[in-house]
Amino acid sequence: MRVPDDAAPDGAGVGGVPGASPVSGAQGRRLAGERLRQAILAGDMAPGQRLVEEELAGLFGVTRASLRGALFDLAADGLAERIPNRGARVRAVTAAEAVAITECRMALEGLCAAKAAERVTGPQAQRLLQLGAQLEQAVAAAEPLKYSALNHELHRTVREISGQQVAAALLERLNGQLVRHQFQLSLRPGRARTSLGEHLAIIAAITAGRPAQAERATRRHLRSVITALLDQDKLDQHKLDQQEEEAR
Description:
Helix content: over 70%
CATH superfamily of the largest domain: GntR ligand-binding domain-like
Largest sheet: 3 strands, antiparallel
Number of helices: 10
Shape: globular
Structural class: mainly alpha
Strand content: under 5%
Order of helices and strands: HEHHEEHHHHHHH
CATH class of the largest domain: Mainly Alpha
Radius of gyration: 21 Å
Oligomer: single chain
């Protein structure tokens, strides 16, 4: 795992200060949770990777009790799982689970898009149009990772404009479980170009103040994501079958 810039190095206390006591209680739990969540969402921790309490507590400068509490919080959010008598690990989300999560996203993000179309201001509309232009540039320059980052920024901006804080909070938790699948899709040849038109349709509907059209465009986009997830799962299974055949 890549060490966060502000994590404590081995043998150091809080913030790298020698001799400082580890952070405990609710503060330590929150600190450890933020660091772990950041590492998982950034892809620095792989699905199935063990989360060793003693190692991570020292890394983040918190007590083991605080680290353990943070692991329970991450498990509640679907980012980690606790295995009886074996500790915890980063949870691996199956393709079937990813599809189910995306179906939930369809309802929540459709709601946010409709609300955004009702509430959007002139400056907010300009920001969405700017993101649309940047998405087009990323596709033209064949920069899938940049496109992926802009994709996340677009969806985040729509949630922010919507003012639907409950839906936005639920989506934050759901999206955190899809990091690996979203990364894989971002690298698929042609995927960015396919989703570009879908994103531009969402932007056009919101900036025009058309809630029903914005919701339909968002649902259409996420149905396309589900199709891509299923296609990727078939491809992965085919590769696995080939590897097993070659190993015989």
